[in-house]
Write a structure and sequence with these properties.
Elements lengths: L2 H15 L11 E2 L10 H4 L10 E6 L4 E9 L5 H12 L6 E3 L2 H4 L13 H16 L3 E5 L11 E3 L13
Parallel strand pairs: 4-5, 5-6
Antiparallel strand pairs: 1-3, 2-3
């Protein structure tokens, strides 16, 4: 987009023409962590019951195996912390939209021994973040679990029919 000035030009143009710009920020997963970025895997990454970090995995139907994209799950308890850090910089652009697609589709438990959270806790943290984002921006998500509907403006990839499964495992 041409760096910071290119993004500023895009935001200005979108306001003139009346369309939204929704840069994607992933609060549920992190692909790389660097020094001084405010993220600590020990403090912020989701842990399994046996104290391992959890990563996002996809099921490959062709090979019938799970594939890892090396994106570590972030505890929902730190979403607001991460958003505050991001928003302090992002708000300077005066953009009208923000996308946090995985908040609409993924809900992770965290079995950290010192700070555990179940999926209901994660739902509360997710809705709290979406509500906070909505005070400043139009919010876009993907898939859209029903609990997110009241706090978002745009939902991509919303299911339009049922799987017809009567039970889930």
């Amino acid at each position: 987009l041409g760096g910071n000035s290119g993004f500023e030009d895009l935001v200005k143009y979108s306001k003139e023409k009346g369309f939204g710009v929704y840069p994607e920020f992933d609060f549920a997963y992190i692909s790389n962590e660097g020094l001084f970025d405010g993220v600590s895997l020990k403090a912020h990454a989701v842990k399994t019951i046996d104290n391992r970090y959890t990563s996002k995995r996809y099921y490959n139907t062709a090979t019938q195996t799970f594939e890892n994209d090396f994106a570590l799950a972030i505890s929902s308890s730190v979403y607001s912390y991460l958003y505050d850090g991001l928003n302090s910089k992002y708000s300077k652009y005066e953009a009208n939209g923000i996308s946090a697609s995985t908040l609409g589709s993924d809900l992770n438990s965290d079995f950290d021994e010192d700070d555990p959270y179940n999926r209901e806790d994660s739902k509360v943290f997710t809705n709290s973040l979406l509500e906070e984002m909505g005070k400043t921006y139009d919010v876009m998500i993907s898939k859209g679990n029903a609990y997110t509907f009241k706090n978002v403006d745009v939902i991509l990839d919303l299911a339009t029919e049922s799987s017809n499964y009567q039970k889930a495992s």
